[in-house]
Every structure is written in structure tokens, then in C-alpha cells.
Specification:
Elements: H1 3-11, H2 15-23, H3 34-39, H4 41-54, H5 56-67, H6 70-113, H7 116-120, E1 156-160, E2 166-168, E3 176-180, H8 185-195
Parallel strand pairs: 1-3
Antiparallel strand pairs: 2-3
Length: 199
Amino acid sequence: MNFDEQLASIRGLPPEDLAAELSQTVVDTTRYSGRDLVHNAVVRNAALAELDQMNPRRADVLRNILADPTPALDTSLTALEDYWNAALAAEWERIEPGLYNVLAHAGQRIAHEGVFPMLRYPCFADPDRSHPPSAASRPSAPARHHCYARAAGDLHGQPLRRPPVRVTCDDPWPLRVTYPVAPLAPVLQTATANNVGTG
């Protein structure tokens, strides 16, 4: 799914889901959830009354989102699209084919060898292992808990521009293996060179 398709999928979400998500950008999420703001009148009225006292402008934003989330969504996605086009689109076009190749290779390797070899050898993006990993690039001691992929679609690969390999297995995030990837190495080298001597 490309960037435009992802934006379209967000725009296609049910209005109540959009309202629930967008309303959480306005309230204290340690006290109010978007779902409750949409579906529970008592919670909604309490949040609005509090904002009316503390920040009337923000209260108006919340009312507008709950009444019709589309204008707020359009504003947010337009800003996101402008940023993407200005800062990321050209670079993504350059690195995307290489990332797809690395993901395909990772999937094949996990299917045949399991995920453990990848965790021991972060440079798995190099199928010939012509550059063995240094001791410094190996991950630290594993966390003292277990996580399980409950179905084939539960494990997500996420290329990363720098070591180490990382396993994410805490809610609410999906089970994910994050790993360094060869096509992003020039990006890292450029960033490192630009930051030399900056402290």
C-alpha cells in the first residue's frame, strides 16, 4: 500500500472511528478515551465542561470533531501530505525497491530458519554474510519474558537504519522484529557525517 492509498484508507474509516482517534489529540488521554468521548455522554460532557473552564478554544475543537471529524481529518492529512512531498517522497522512491527486496529475503529466512538466527546476526540482509557482524552489533541479553506469534500474520518486519535488532512484544503494539537494513546504510552514513563535531 503506497502513501496515497494509506491516506485514502484513513479517509474511508467510519466517522465514529475518526472522531474517537482525533478527539484524543485534544484531551488528556490518561483520563479520557476517544471511544468514551464518542459513545458515553457522561464522559463527553465531563470532558467538555472541563475544557470549557480551562481552554475554551480547545473545547470548541473537541465539539467540532465529535460533531463532524471530516474537516479536522482533512486539515491533518493535508499537512501530512505536504510534509511527505517536501521531505520524504523523493527519498522513499529511492529506497523503497531495496526495502521490498530485504523484506522478502527476511520472510524467506524466517520461514526456513526461524527468527533466532536473525537476532544473533543482525546483518542478515547480506545473504552471503560477506561482512560478519562485530560483537558490538550483536543484541544485548534478551528480556526475561516470552512472546508468541499466534498466527502467520502476527509477526511484522520493520527495516531500521541503524542497529541493534529489536523485538517488540508489548501491547498495544504488534509483535515486531526491527532490524538494520543495507539500503538505508548510505542514509545513516550521511547523517553521521553531517553530525560529526556537533556534540
